Amino acid sequence: MGKRPVTLCTCQWADLPLDELCALAEKMGYDGLEIACWGSNLDLDRALEDESYIPWVQETLKKHNLICKALATHIIGQCVGDAPDPRLNNFAPAALADQPDAIRQWGIDTMKKAAVVANKMGVKIITGFTGSPIWKYLYSFPQTTEEMIEDGYNRIVELWTPILNEFKKNDVKFALEVHPGEIAFDYYSTKRLLEKFSDRLEFGINFDPSHLIWQGIKPHLFLSDFRDRIYHVHMKDAAVTLDGRSGLLGSHIDFGDLRRGWNFRSLGHGDVNFEEIIRVLNDMGYDGPLSVEWEDSGMDRIDGATEAAAFVRKVDFKKSDIKFDDAISNG
User: Fold this and answer.
1) Which of 153, 179, 135 has its CA nearest to residue 11?
2) Strands 237-240 and 230-235, bridge-based pairing
3) Where does the pLDDT of residue 1 fall: very low under 50, low under 70, confident under 90, or very high at 90 and above?
4) Residue 234 exposure: Cα atoms within 13 Å on the Cβ side
5) pLDDT of residue 138
6) Read out DSSP for 210-259?
7) How far does Cα 323 stand from its chain's mean position?
8) How far apart are CA 258 and CA 80, in angstroms?
9) Distances in Å between the alpha carbon of 19 and those of 16, 31, 115?
């Protein structure tokens, strides 16, 4: 297996027009982009209505020696499965503000559009979120029944089945980023969700170690155990800095604040053991992108993302094709 392509997840760069972003990504040392389907990066409606748009996107990528192996739909998918939440006004079109049913329908319709656009672009993976109708039940007080949790999982299956039908029709897979705020946010919630979708191979995981490490989960074990449903990989770091006052739940203190008990960090500046992750990826035979999702409120994003690309290239070693002691045998 050769080294995997190093791509940039553009969710944190959606303020930049695609041509400007491509030029920057090439300069920072990336092989490709995981393109966000919102903001100034990629217009799904235009991709479906304007026959010249997708060729322009592909030509712009090619001009800067970039590939696209995945589209990102995080804020769109969040609108599908969440309970009514005024914060979704930040994700959906402004005209839908404070209309939870309309926001949900927009999320469903737009996820279906993303599958069609991905197919037209020759992209096989769409990463993103599902939302969760039961995230508010994270701490079981007031008392939470098993029936309430089961109803939440069943609701996600109900909402996402029509979307997955469209994904299957377009030969595209959805890769959920296991993440707080989603129906699957840790090891056992992921196991439960994959059991619900056991017969839907269109549904898998976008592995991101940064959301696991601060919860006390060993990312490489998660990766190994769910290997059959790992469809895409994020390279992202986080550091736990508990000081006796801070806690893991964040204290309603914003990311980057040094009082927090943990923070996302630029690659190589946190606690994730990427060598163990690479070893598991090699064992799995994963040859897809290693996509840098750059988040570090304490570092300049261009400096940080440039350093991150180089970090991934350094840490991504090939699997050996011989046993190390074969060379010392007689023949």
Assistant:
1) 179
2) unpaired
3) very low
4) 30
5) 96
6) HHHHTTT--HHHHHHHTGGGEEEEEE-EEEE---SS--TT-TTPPTT-TT
7) 35
8) 33
9) 8, 15, 23
DSSP string, 141-187: -S---HHHHHHHHHHHHHHHHHHHHHHHHTT-EEEEE--TTSS--SH
* Sign of the CA dihedral with 57 first, then 179, 196, and 133 last: negative
Total number of residues shown for the chain = 331
First-to-last C-alpha distance (Å) of the chain: 26
Tell me the pLDDT tens digit for each residue of 86-133: 999 999 999 999 999 999 999 999 999 999 999 999 999 999 999 999
Q: Which helix (H) or strand (E) holds 73?
A: none
Question: Cα(331)–Cα(193) distance, rounded to whole angstroms?
Answer: 51
Report d(CA 294, CA 106) in Å as an integer. Answer: 28
What is the predicted pLDDT for the residue at 322?
Answer: 72
- Amino acid in the structure at residue 209: P
> What integer best gives the mean pLDDT of the chain?
96
Predicted model pTM: 0.96
Picking from 169, 38, 21, the residue whose alpha carbon sits closest to that of residue 107 is: 38
